[in-house]
Model the fold of this input.
Amino acid sequence: MTLTQTLQRNCVKVPLEGKDKNSVISELLDLLEANGLLPDKDCASEAVFTRERTRSTGIGSGIAIPHGKCKAVKELVMAFGIAHEPIEFESVDGKPVAIVILLVSPIDQTGPHIQALAKISRLMLDEEFRQSLEKATSAEEAYALLSKKESEQ
Done:
C-alpha cells in the first residue's frame, strides 16, 4: 500500500488556512467532502473529533494524524495539509504541528487504516523529508514530494 494510492492530488492543501486544531481538522474534512469522498461529513466529523478528545493525534515532530472510523465511507480516504505557521495540537512532545494528515476509515476495515498510520509514521521518521514538506509552497509540490519519497522505498 502506498499513501498516494489513497491520497488524491486534489485532497492536498498548502497552506492550511486554519489557525487552531479544530479549524484545521474541519478544513481537511471540508476538502474530502468537496471532492466527493465524504458522503456524510457529520458522521466523519463526529468520529474524528471524538477520537481527538480521547487523546491528541499530534504524534510529535511537527506531525498530526487526526483519524476516525465511521459508516460514512466505504474505503479509507485521506486529506493532507501543511500549515506555514505551526498550530498548537496538544502533541505528545508539546510542540506545534505543521504537517496534518487526516484519515477516515470504514468501521469494519481496520487493516488499511493501520497500514496507513504505519506508513505515515515510517515516512515521517526522515527529518530531511519532513522539512522539505514543511517548506512546500503548493499542494502540487507537497504531493510530488510525497510521491517521490514513496517511490524511493
